[in-house]
Amino acid sequence: MIMKADRLHSGPICTALAFLGSFFFFQFAYPYHLMRREQLDLFLWDGDHIARTYRGAGWLARLGGDFLEQFFGLPVVGPLLVALLLTAIGMVMYRICRRFLSHWPSLIIAAVVFLWSFMRETGNNYMTCYTLVVLGYLSLVLLALQFKRVWLQGAAVAVFLAFGAWALASPYHPQYGRLWGTPKLDDERMIGLDIEVSREHWDKVLKLSEKDLYMEEASYCYNLAQAMKGNLGNALLNHSQNHQFSLLFPVSADRAIFTNTLAGEAWFQLGDMTMAEQSAITSLQASPRHTGVRFVTRLARVNLITGEDAAAQKYLNMLSGTLFYRKWARRMMPGRQDGSLQEKLAEDRAKLTGKDFVHQAENPRAVLLGLLEADSTNVTARNYLLCYDLLCYDLDSFIRDYEPDRIPARLYHEAILIWLSQQGRLTPEEVAGYGVDVSNVDRMGRFGKNPTAFKNTYWYYYWRMMNEQLPE
Fold first, then answer.
1. Is residue 241 part of a domain?
2. Which of 313, 328, 343 finishes a domain?
3. CB of 107 within 8 A of CB of 148?
4. How far apart are CA 377 and CA 371, in angstroms?
5. Are residues 18 and 161 in the same domain?
6. Could you tell me if residue 355 is inside a domain?
7. Tens digit of each residue's pLDDT (9 = 90 or more) over 56-79
């Protein structure tokens, strides 16, 4: 009787643990992993589009996967759906095994299959359709086993698996299905930085940046958030930097889609719509299904800013066929924009330059100078230009680009003192003329006695270049 009671309770307990464990993991430890899938997908509620897109082997799994992934941008719904799918896989596997084995072996096998499916879900490039494929095949086998006669069961399995090969296709893809996966929490944090940058949640970007990942992409997100908060000139060296390479990324088909997508974010905020559009198009072409709501949204915004209303309307019409972006698309539609939106678009248009910078993609400084030539009040571009000079150790260019009364900042003052010292002009009058408090001269003297106590200063960054023996 005790063993029977254990069997009665162990199944529901394991099911509840599997569901709750999956839900809490994807909700709190791995939330951005699912949100990124939503950004790379674009499910249109249009009969013609569905008929054209979901054809051939695996049509049902692809349709179901794309349908579900449109909900992954929601903080609770996405983890809930994944937890339900994974738990269902374990339950169906248990029911199949119980046709041939006792309770505990069946429970162990079901747990192993659940764990395998769970680990696959944590893969960075994984697609939900592959979880649906596994669940679909297992469900077809369980359905076939409902026939009482053995020969009918075998025939049903053959027929159902043939249907599965047509409607579900393979549960494995060398790039997007993977046989196995493992959670990578640093990758999850990096994906989170990317997601929050795309949503322009700058405070959340800085919160995620509290742990330094020592990656160019992470530093890039941190720098952009600080620039948008107006604090880049003070906080740049509070985070690791790979010289100028972590400040701005070129857009190139040779780079990974993740980096190319990020590259457009800074250029968009700086006002270079050419580079922002190139980033979106390149990423769209390299995405798993050559689609993605993030890229279509960006292309719509870029074309609205540049005044290409016909092109913008094409993308907005597409977004109008989605479940969660239709209201935004209708509000952005030319002719329907309210006063505040028109004012914001006018502000963005003021940053535009008449120059085409595609051929200067490898020379960010020239692009930044062009943006400032078009709009000298573009504070974000000014900060990026000054920090670019500093990260390149180019103090002569920095002095030419610096305007004392426009954007004073700690790192800029530290760089000025180095340059004045090199020129033999470190006098109170010269220091004051650049808007630098003379007390910083004494502070620089203390740095000379103990450099490692000033690791977040430009003095330390510059001296490390001059003397590579200084510790990290």
1. yes
2. 328
3. no
4. 10
5. yes
6. no
7. 999 999 999 999 999 999 989 999
Burial zone of 375 (CB within 10 Å; 0-12 exposed, 13-18 middle, 19+ buried) = middle
Are 18 and 126 within one domain?
A: yes
Residues 232 and 108 in one domain: no
Helix 439-449 to helix 458-466 angle (10° resolution) is 40
Contacts of 364 (CB under 8 A, 6+ apart): 244, 247, 248, 250, 388
CB of 178 closer than 8 Å to CB of 120? yes
Q: Is the pLDDT of residue 406 over 80?
A: no
**Residues 259 and 135 placed together within one structural domain of the fold:** no
Neighbours of 13 (CB within 10 A): 11
Domain range holding 404? 393-466
Rounded CA-CA distance 192/196 in Å is 6
CA 429 to chain CA centroid, nearest Å: 48
User: What number of helices (H) and strands (E) belong to the chain?
Assistant: 25, 0
The answer to whether residue 197 is domain-embedded is yes
Between CA 374 and CA 382 the distance in angstroms is 12
Q: Which helix (H) or strand (E) holds 432?
A: helix 428-433
| pLDDT interval class at 403 (50, 70, 90) | confident
15 and 160 both lie in a single domain:
yes
Look at residues 244, 191, 217, 222 and name the one whose alpha carbon lies nearest to residue 387. 244
**Are 160 and 29 in a shared domain?**
yes
466 Cβ neighbours under 8 A, 6+ residues apart: none
Domain match, 124 and 203 both: no
**Per-residue pLDDT tens over the stretch 90-139:** 999 999 999 999 999 999 999 999 999 999 999 999 999 999 999 999 99
Whole-angstrom Cα distance, residue 168 to residue 59? 7
What total of structural domains would you count in the chain? 3
**Residue for token pair 């698996």:** 161
β strands within 87-139, DSSP E: none
The answer as to whether 334 is a domain residue is no
Is there a contact between 419 and 395 (Cβ–Cβ < 8 Å)?
yes
Q: CA nearest 284: which of 306, 261, 268, 263?
A: 261
Percent of the chain with pLDDT over 70: 95
From residue 108, alpha-carbon distances to 15, 38, 84, 113, 339 in Å are: 12, 33, 19, 9, 62
Q: How far apart are CA 356 and CA 183, in angstroms?
A: 43
Listed residue (397, 346, 400, 398) closest to 375, CA to CA: 346
C-alpha atoms less than 13 angstroms from C-alpha of 22 in its C-beta half-sphere: 30
What span, in angstroms and rounded, lies between the C-alpha atoms of 314 and 407?
Answer: 40
Instruction: For residue 347, give every residue at least 6 positions away whose Cβ sits within 8 Å of its Cβ, in sequence order, or none.
Output: none
| Same domain? 24 vs 64 | yes
Task: Report residue 253's pLDDT band, with 50, 70 and 90 as the boundaries.
Answer: confident
